[in-house]
Amino acid sequence: MSNKVINLFGNEFVQNTGVKYSELLEQFITPFAKEFTDVEYYEDVFEFAINAWNMANIQAVMPEDELDKAMKTVEQEGTDLSLLKKMVAHKIKKYKAYTNFIVDYEFVDDKTGKNPVLRVVTQEKDTYLASMFNQMEDDDLDIQEEFEENYINRSAIIIKPKQPFLDWFSDLNPEDDFEDELKQTNIYLIDEDTEDVEKFLRKKFDKFFKMELEEWHDNKKEWPQKRNYKMFNLWFQVDVSEMIYDIEKRPVKKSEY
Predict the structure, then answer these.
(1) Measured between alpha carbons, how far is 104 from 119 in angstroms, rounded to an integer?
(2) H or E stretch including 120?
(3) Within this chain, do residues 79 and 174 fall inside the same structural domain, yes or no?
(4) In a domain, 253, yes or no
(5) Would you call 229 exposed, middle or buried from its count of C-beta atoms within 10 A (0-12, 13-18, 19+)?
(6) Eight-state DSSP code of residue 252
(7) Banded model confidence at residue 138, pLDDT cuts 50, 70, 90
(8) Burial class of residue 209 (count of CB atoms within 10 Å of its CB; 0-12, 13-18, 19+)
(9) Are 24 and 98 in the same domain?
(10) Among 86-100, 125-139, 140-154, 230-244, which stretch is predicted with the lowest mean pLDDT?
(11) How many domains does the chain have?
(12) Are residues 131 and 206 in the same domain?
């Protein structure tokens, strides 16, 4: 599946029949597709849109001053606040009757195995808000507890290229010997509350796939084009570590891209 957002809504994209939240989400994103042309990973687009959808639902029940605080927090995290506000307003104007919150999504192949079909999981308003407030209370309790020294509140996905990846790269660079370097592993930190890493990877695998490919070969035309989760597992060994410690005194520096 192409990572270009504008292509997600072309003729090859299969929509479910009937009025479903998957269809509503696709329709909700479509007017803003050109706003995402610089976004490389389609997962980021859908997560942004889901956040806008849910924030619009919350706006109906949240006091205005609390909503302003939430917006400022989003802006500090580097989110495009202007686009977020436009999408929130669009949701309120066009989709006010649909009050369910979107809590998860995935793409699955259709019966032909060629076209992706969007599926979403929703929760009714009362259930979602109750869960959200309970989580906020749990987070407050966690903050009050003493953290284990040097512990980082992240889990780690460790990705190591396997032979098919090495063969692909060697075919493109027959005169170079990078085998030792290619056997190095990359580590990606994710939310420590990710309970089902397998499910997480099924949704995010192509993002990791592209990052691994791009590190060694920046010509995307020569990347394998028909990537899927099965191929990802054939090309990479994936290990997970849930206990991450930083024993250095200097703070961790996160580069901005």
Answers:
(1) 9
(2) strand 116-123
(3) no
(4) no
(5) middle
(6) P
(7) low
(8) buried
(9) yes
(10) 140-154
(11) 2
(12) no
DSSP string computed for 28-49: HHGGGGGGGTT---HHHHHHHH
Q: Strands across the sheet with 186-191, in order?
A: 186-191, 154-161, 236-241
Q: Classify residue 160 by its DSSP letter.
A: E
Are both 95 and 127 inside the same structural domain? yes
Mean pLDDT score of the chain:
78
**Domain termination residue (choose one: 117, 144, 171):** 144
123's tokens: 């929760």
φ/ψ of 223, rounded to 5, equals: -75, 155
| Co-location of 114 and 20 in the same domain | yes
φ/ψ (deg, to 5) at 211: -65, -40
96 found inside a domain: yes
- Phi and psi at residue 118, in whole multiples of 5°? -85, 135
Torsion angle, alpha carbons of 86, 89, 90, 95, to 10: 150
Q: Which residues constitute the domain of residue 161?
A: 151-245
Q: Which two tokens stand for residue 83?
A: 């686009």
Report the predicted TM-score, pTM, of the whole model to 2 decimal places. Answer: 0.56
Q: What are phi and psi of 224, to 5 degrees?
A: -60, 130
